[in-house]
Design brief:
The complex is a heterodimer of chains A (254) and B (122). Chain A is mainly alpha-helical. Chain A is 77% helix and 0% strand. The relative contact order of chain A is 0.12. Classes of the chains: A mainly alpha (254), B mainly alpha (122). At the A-B interface, α2, α3, α4, α5 and α6 of A face α1, α2, α3, α4 and α5 of B.
Chain lengths: 254, 122
Amino acid sequence: MERILKFIHDNGLVVAFLVVGVVMIFSEVISKKVTRGKVPAAAIAIITGLILAYIGGVYSGGKKGVADIPLLEGLGMMGSPMLRDFAIVSTAMGASVLVMKKTGVLGAISLLIGVTLSFVSGVLLAFAWGYRDAAVLTTIGAGACTYIVGPVTGAALGASSEIIALSIAAGVVKAVVVAVGTPFLAKSIGLNNPHTAMIFGGLIGTNAGVMAGLAATDPKLVPYGALTATFYTGLGCLLCPSVFHLIVRAIVGY
Amino acid sequence: MVIYGVALLSLSFIGGQLLGEMLGEVLGIDANVGGVGFGMLILIVLKTLLSKRGFFRDGESQGIEFWNNMYVPIIVAMTATQNVSAAVSAGMLAVMAGLLPVALCFLTIPLLSRFLKDKTSL
C-alpha cells in the first residue's frame, strides 16, 4: 500500500490527467443525458471541480481543495498558474488578424461594453457584500466576465484562493445562465440574425455559454457569436488586471 | 514540427508575461499587469506573420492546438484545487455576480443592435 502511495505521489501529474479525464467523461454524459445538451459539458466539469474542491477542503481541512488529499495532489500541478496561463494563451490560436478585421467596429464596441458592464456590476456587488480591498474587488469583477478572467486576474494581483474560487463560481453561474436562458429570451431581444448574434457574443462573452445558448436558439448563429466571443476572455485578461485594477484602486484606495 | 508550434506558444507566453511584469514594475504595482492578454496578442500577430510567409503549417498548428484543447481540463484541475469551502460562505455573491451581468447585457443587446445598425447603414 505504501508503495502504491509513493508511486502515485511520484507520478502526480499523470494521475491528474486520468482523474480530470474521468471528470470530463462524467460531465459530458450529464450534459447530454440529463440536461439534453442545454448546459455545456465544460460548465458541468467546472461545477464538478468546485464540488470536489469543497469536499476535499472539508475532508482535509486544508486550503488547496483536493490537492490536500495525498492521492490527488497532482491536480495542483495540472492546475498551476503556469500551465493554466500557457493553455489560455493558446486559445488565441483561433483568432487571426483577418478575423479581427472582419469583426471590426461592431465587435470592438460590443466587446468593450460587454467586458466593462460585467466587470462593473461584479465590483459593485462585491462592494455591497462588504469587500473593500482593490485586488479582491477587481478579481470578483473579473469573475463576472468569465471563469477564466477571474482566476487569471486574481493570480496576477495576488488575491487569496478563497476569492479566486468565488470568482470562478461567479463565472460558471454566468455561463450556465447564458446557456440555459438564451433560447427563452432570444425572441424578446431580437436574436435571430448574424448581426445581433455578433453583438450578443461580444456583450456576453463567456465562450461555452454563448455557444451552447446560440446552438439551442439557432445553430446557424453559432459562428457569428463565437467570432466576437473569442476575443472576450483575451480582452478581459488584458483589461482587468491592468486598467480596471488601477481604476478600482484609485477609487477605493488599497 | 509540433515542437516549433509549442516553442512559438512559449515565446508568446514568456514575452507577454515579461511585458506584464515590466508594466507592473513601471506602474509600481506588485502584480502582473495583463500578461496573459499580451501573450495572446503576441501569438496572434506572430502566427499571422508566419503563416503569410508559409512557415506555419499543420505540425506547428498541432503543437498549439493540443494546449488549446487542454484548456478546459486544466481549468477543471485548477478549480478543484481552490479553497472552495472558505468561499461557500459568500456563495450568494457568486450567484449574484453571475446573474446580474447577464441580465444587464441582455437588456443592452436590443439597444446596441439598433444603434450599431443605424451607424453601419449610413
